[in-house]
Amino acid sequence: MTLPPANRARLQDLREIGDDDVDLAAAALDIAGLHRAGTALAPYLRHLETLVQEVGVYAGKNPDVDHAVEALVQVIARRYGYGGDDETFDDLEAANFATVIDERRGLPVALGILYIHVARAQGWSAGGIDFPGRFLVRLEVAAERRILDPFDDGRVLDPKDMRDLLKVGAGLGAELTPDQYREIGNREILLRLENNLKVRHLRAERFDEALRVIETMLLFAPETSSLWREAGMIHARLDHVREAIWALEEFLRLDTSTESRYSASVLLQDLRDRLI
Predict the structure, then answer these.
(1) What confidence score (pLDDT) does residue 4 get?
(2) What is the full DSSP assignment across 208-223?
(3) Which range marks the domain in which residue 269 is found?
(4) Structure pTM?
């Protein structure tokens, strides 16, 4: 796979820093540049800085959490029109952070990255919530916390709202648990962003495109064993025998699950036999 060298190098550099030091928005733009050749990132970085400045002006000094929420929503959702709609979920470009900035429409995780970036730039604590079927944002200011839905114009969700949202995605019998408030790290957010593309390509049997996405993910998360397994399976399906062997060997080096290791080992031996 041929990738723009500067984008590739910056994503690989993420391996060397702590998760808290990952610049989410900058990394998401580097990923966007890999998927959309020729993308100049400077205008997007300037736009992000504009959002940061305007939210800061609106919030003023030392806002409480509700005024911080109001500043984010008024600038990002109202003034600039960022949000989601039903058609967005079917659009591959809705996971491309540069396109989301262009179109002001995106998947929940792409919009969430925008909110998180702008909030953190104000010195507020913000992160992603690993909620089933919908990426949410946790904002904390002055020891008070709110959960926002960037896909729904930054709406604040109370426990009842989250329960209702959970039942839509997971069924009427689903109930909130502490796990559904779990905050995920920066690399995991980037993986979730790319996973949207990977899943859609696999469903459409665009295996070469799915491999391109997986290889992009491995640039900044090479220790994610499941990605190596998926890469090995796809290469095997495409009859890329040597590439499949290499990917499955990496998977077995990293994985500790007996069940997964067994099926991968069987396939690996079959592939090695084909080279004899």
Answers:
(1) 65
(2) HHHHHHHHHHHHH-TT
(3) 223-275
(4) 0.92
